[in-house]
Amino acid sequence: MFILYFLFFSVSQCYRVCLSAIVKDEAKVIVRFLKNNMYAFDRFDITDTGSSDDTVNLAIEFFVANNISGDVHYFAWADDFGKAKSYALEKSKEKQCDHIVFLDADEEMWTSSMQVFKPSDTDAFFKDMDSQCPVVCNVQIYSNGFKWWRSFAIAGSIKESKFLGSRHEFVDSGGHGPTTFVNNYYIYARRDQTRHNREKNSLILDGLALERDASRGLNLGRSLYYAGQSYEQAGEFDRALAMYRKRVETDEGWYQEKFIAQLHIGIITESKEGFSAAIPEFYQAMKIDSSRAEPFYHLAHGFRMNENYIACFLLAREGACKKISSDHLFAQEHIFTIAVHDEAAVCSSFLPQYRVESLEFFMYLNKRLPEDQRIRANLGWVNNTLLDAFKQSTLPNAAARTKLLKLWRQ
């Protein structure tokens, strides 16, 4: 009896970290997806929702060729990502996975060195999942210059867990918690099959589905925000504004979604009605989150285009002090590290009383982008202008002279 029990236990022992993914018509990327993730997981569960291309055969062939534990499952698409991912989640639970990770077919796991996993990385990752993801956990995702935190994995022991939401689905852990964060690992999203390349009608359908979720009170803040995003990407700007304004009006959910909604109200308003109409919208975004550089950048840029260089400079200088944070949703690193500094540099170059600061900003930019000819040319012009002012003793004050000498010694 003991021998039979031991054999049964050995055959049915659980997997440590399993990949769960729903796919449809991913033949162009499925092999790359599996190859780049093959050392991050010890099991793959792929759920196909109705592919008409060779996605399924390619996945099965890859499993066989690489001796990978994995199955392809089938789910009849019901226009509901929550239902599809819940089905996929159950299939991994059936295999007694300790942890189940959710990825899309254009995503891959990266280590702390921002590289795909090697065989030597696997064991440490499994141990970190045990210690850092007791129930539900998030991880940071990178894509197209943006980075944000996203639902990442759930412990297989949480039997009540499921996904809710027809679009931008989220994990319902059945009251278990709290949500934790997995550090030193990342998701890199290539976004070959991105929403931005989809047809307008498809994006509108997404928006309508999310509006229905919101009307049911299903993750209200998130549904409103992503409905607005879908409509904006479809070019339906009035619909987008309506959803974004509703998102700003509700306190439910993550305040970062409220910030991004308000920021995009400003962006859309500027495109439709001009910069003057957008000014209060950008200031409102600042009130929601004063730690972010984007409203300062958009205001500075708008004032520069209207030749109000002092307003531009003062806003850009303050924005340049903001530091990007892992708590920021859809943060654009370029704005924090380059764009707002560039606005400060250009606008202060028009202002003799701030021209020393212009030199400082252009020196910073030149270090970041040494091959940029425009920055190099502006740096040379500002430097020569200040040299003349230094020789003629026309600098604004002694403090400017001292700071200029310090910059020249660098």
The radius of gyration is 26 Å
Query: The CATH topology of the domain at 13-185 is what?
Result: Spore Coat Polysaccharide Biosynthesis Protein SpsA, Chain A
Number of strands: 11
Mean pLDDT: 92
What would you note in describing this structure?
It is a single chain. Helix 8 (237-249) runs antiparallel to helix 9. It contains 16 helices and 11 strands. The protein has helices spanning 2-11, 30-37, 55-65, 81-94, 122-132, 200-215, 220-233, 237-249, 255-273, 275-288, 294-305, 309-319, 333-349, 355-368, 373-391, 398-409; strands at residues 17-23, 43-48, 70-74, 99-102, 107-110, 136-143, 146-155, 162-164, 170-172, 179-189, 331-332. The chain has a domain at 13-185: Alpha-Beta Complex (Spore Coat Polysaccharide Biosynthesis Protein SpsA, Chain A), CATH 3.90.550. The strands form 2 sheets. Strands 1, 2, 3, 4, 5, 6, 7, 10 and 11 form a 9-stranded mixed beta sheet that branches. The protein has a two-stranded antiparallel ribbon with strand order 8-9. The protein is elongated, with a radius of gyration of 26 Å. Helices cover 52% and strands 15% of the residues. The chain is of the alpha/beta class and 410 residues long.
